[in-house]
Amino acid sequence: MEKKIICKLVCLLTYVCSVLITACQHHESISTNEEGDTISLRYARNLTMVQYENRLEVFQRNPWDTSKVLNHYTIVQEKGKYPNEVLVPLKKAAVFTSVHCALLQELGVETSIGGVYDLQYIHLPFITQKVKAGSILDLGNAMNPNIELVMELHPDALMPNPFENSGGYGRLEQLGIPIIECADYMEVSPLARAEWMRFYGRLFGVGKEADSLFLQIEQRYLSLCEKALQAKTHPKLICDIPYSGQWMLPGHESTMGQMYNDAGADYVFNDLKGAGSIPLSIEHVLDRALTSDIWIFKHHGPITRKQIYQDTPLLKDVPASMWFCDTSTSGFYEETPFHPERLLANLVQILHPELGIQAEKAYFCSYE
What we know:
- The protein is an alpha/beta fold.
- It has two domains: 2-215, 3-Layer(aba) Sandwich (Rossmann fold), CATH 3.40.50; 230-366, 3-Layer(aba) Sandwich (Rossmann fold).
- It has helices at 2-26, 98-106, 125-133, 147-153, 190-194, 197-203, 207-229, 255-262, 282-289, 305-311, 332-335, 340-351; strands at 37-38, 47-51, 56-61, 69-76, 85-87, 93-95, 113-116, 137-138, 157-159, 236-239, 246-250, 266-267, 277-281, 294-299, 321-326, 365-366.
- The strands form four sheets. A five-stranded mixed beta sheet has the order 1-2-3-4-5, covered by helices on one side. Strands 12-10-14-15-16 form a five-stranded mixed beta sheet, with helices on one face. A four-stranded parallel beta sheet has the order 8-7-6-9, sandwiched between helices.
């Protein structure tokens, strides 16, 4: 236990030092006696925001090497003398994912979306309608960006998802357009990821609205956690289905692994280490799946039991009650990252019907 505490302290000190070093490197012209107010973030660990009189300094910790800074931005309302400036509010952003498009719509700044990538994966009516009308530009494939279209749009900022060892953004980095890396998906808990909306809100001039929305989400989420603690039983839970001979399962430290715990489930792979999803063999998973009570899984588009069993006949022996989420129509990927309380309510309703929780939306529906 003492070793773990010491390790955590060392990591924290290393990160703080790296942030300070980066700040010094980028702010040579800033007076050393200038003081800023650090914006209190309750859950996010990969984000630091410091408010000064004329700017907001934002540091993103590298989630793959927490001793380093992934990126640093100086958020300003008027162009000045600072490196890495991002002029706000953004009025024409190129957004890479449907989840961030959905958040901007909820914050009331959807008119600031100037272009989108990977349109085929964005199941939001307002996006498809505006692309057809020409008010939002289809920028093509995120993995192979159309530079000419980006230059035609000339957005205020690009908002991609960073990936480990991705090699950067190629020619996009040469355009002189600020690149806001949306690394929220690498956060340490459901509320930690959702809290990034406070950063995004400040980029679009709706920081107070984002703060207020997050507070509501936090209160609802914590209230559901307290209610789940009142449950007398903890059903054994297995999740997802195998593809191509492998079963991808979330680790204990992942946002979904933590959410299962918050919902009062006995996740049968709760001992699986890691903050991401880990590929396991079907035979390995089946040993525990055979003891499960609840089985939840997602699929893009409808899928029947017959199709599931045809692909993997061994699954016929799993006795658990099955709950299915169609990600093509449910809004699961668009809504739940920044509204974890909605998914948590659905899970508590499934796991503990005796508590009488009424979910705002049923992402998972019973196969029974």
